[in-house]
Amino acid sequence: MPAANDSFRVDATGADGRHEQWQSMLSSTHLPWATRLSPADAPFEASVKRWWIDDLALVDCDCGPSSGTRQRRQIAMTDGDFFIVLMKKSGNESVTQNDVTVDLSPGDAIGWDSTRPARFTVWQQLSKRSLIIPRSAIEEVGGAPWARSGVRLESTCPATQLLTMYLDSLSTSLPMLSQSALSAARNATLELLIGALRPDTVGVSSWARPAIRDAIDRYIEQHLLDRELSPGSIAQAHGVSVRTVNRVFNATGQTVSDVVRVRRLARARTDLAETSSSVAAIANKWGFSDASHLSRTFKAHYGASPRDFRSAQAAAAN
């Protein structure tokens, strides 16, 4: 895991130097961008501060008028798939993705997808915050159906307000957190974000979400240690058919087995970070056939083997 926090500032002299420094800083702290200053020869100042919440990045940025694009080249340079929540603190900015342009004012927040072309234009001195989340983390909390490009979080929504207040508080305490507390903060951040994005939250454009899905999600969380957890056992516990259970998940592009697998991987990830249990013991605990099965599945989802992940966590803690 990277350092707990990093600070960056554009301090070069000359238009070319400022532009190169700004593009490099933005690309290294957020995601790769091709940038322009507006106008190119005008005075320009920018600063960035980044905190790591385990594998989530919380990035505060202050900058002057500028613009940026993400096209095929920048997307190809991006290591992984991410969902980003952009939260405006002051100033004005326009963000475009999927041929839709949204003008953001202070208090507004919008989600965007790292795998699709995008562009932004900062019209005046700006202060903003970005929460950069790997898709693998979004899937842990079943958020994939709602973490979509263009979703807007209204500043008047209580769930959005709770998320922003939590991030404000977290940014001041992150450097002092232990590894276990950092993992807990990460999971709380994900849960609060999905709470703000979910369609049953006032302030987010929504469609009907069957109440049975909520009940099934709770049941899955409570029975992840049960090796017999399956569409059949879930259906029996809720007095519905297996077909109904499958249909509820298919409505959001998921399957029961996908959801169970990802949530078990998330628990295995926590055990790897917080316990000294062997990979084999963790695999057995969370329903994987053996250590090799867990290792293959874990690496496919998180991009690192369980042993490499554990080593990185230990190095970060020291």
TrEMBL record:
Q: Which Pfam families match?
A: AraC_binding_2, HTH_18
One GO MF term attached to the UniProt entry: DNA-binding transcription factor activity
Transcription among keywords: yes
Task: Please tell me whether the keyword Membrane is annotated for this protein.
Answer: no
Q: Which InterPro entries does the annotation name?
A: AraC-bd_2, AraC_XylS_family_regulators, Homeodomain-like_sf, HTH_AraC, HTH_AraC-typ_CS
Keywords of the record, alphabetical order, are: DNA-binding, Transcription, Transcription regulation
Domain HTH araC/xylS-type stretches:
214-312
- The protein depicted here goes by the name Helix-turn-helix domain-containing protein
